[in-house]
Design goal:
By secondary structure, the protein is of the alpha/beta class. It has 7 helices and 11 strands. Helix content is 30%, strand content 23%. Strands 1, 2, 3, 4, 6, 7, 8, 9 and 10 form a 9-stranded mixed β-sheet that branches. Strands 5-11 form a two-stranded antiparallel ribbon.
């Protein structure tokens, strides 16, 4: 299995002069540094980071990973950043995550063990900014976006896709608009019969950092015990 971290965006809502994936946590690690450490500890050796905004800084911080540059990062959204990475992955199971998610390592262990096409979810009440999801009567995801009505919870930004569905997913991402999130590509392949299932991670710590308040909460949530 390969791993992709999406870190091309400007992160304008957080308003930092550097990529928000470099925001520090109380342990001294950066958000992305923690992500890379956890992925490696779970046996993921090939990690591709998609960069754009101030990419040289990220490349200097993390010389041991691979990088793909999204040259249109200021015009496009995560569907096109993810496509930048997937275009160069041959028929292999792939895990991808947003570069601003702080999470417990067990989430990665569980989603890798699950296998197939999986979306990590937190069954909680969601605000407008969260990506939400809804399932059918068999527990398969039928909607995943920011505008889902009567959602079951939040898709936290950690997902996997099996090797046998990689090409159809790539094609769906190609069809996405420049401003689409990668979840639009997931909805397109779901319409074509590909199944994604949710994996509930509500028992673990997990937070996506978009705003200052999120970063404060993340630092509190992941502060060293004692």
């Amino acid at each position: 299995m390969k791993a992709v971290i999406l870190a091309a965006g400007v992160g304008s809502r957080l308003g930092r002069p550097f990529p928000k994936a470099l925001s520090e946590l109380p342990t001294g690690e950066t958000i992305m540094g923690r992500q890379i450490r956890i992925l490696r500890e779970q046996g993921l050796r090939e990690i591709i980071v998609v960069v754009g905004f101030k990419m040289a800084i990220l490349m200097e911080y993390f010389p041991s990973v691979l990088f793909k540059y999204n040259p249109e990062f200021y015009l496009t959204n995560t569907s096109k950043s993810l496509l930048c990475a997937l275009e160069h992955i041959e028929r292999e199971d792939t895990l991808w995550l947003n570069g601003d998610v702080v999470f417990d390592d067990q989430i990665i262990a569980d989603i890798m063990a699950r296998g197939g096409n999986v979306v990590a979810v937190d069954r909680k009440k969601c605000g407008d900014e969260e990506v939400k999801y809804r399932t059918d009567e068999r527990g398969r995801i039928v909607e995943i976006s920011k505008t889902v009505a009567e959602p079951l919870g939040e898709a936290v930004g950690i997902n996997t896709i099996g090797a046998h569905h990689l090409e159809v997913f790539r094609q769906a991402l190609r069809e996405c608009g420049d401003k689409d999130y990668f979840e639009r590509g997931m909805e397109l392949v779901i319409e074509r019969g590909v199944t994604f299932v949710p994996m509930d991670v509500s028992e673990y710590r997990c937070i996506e950092v978009d705003f200052d308040e999120d970063l404060k909460n993340a630092r509190s949530m992941f502060a060293p015990k004692g």
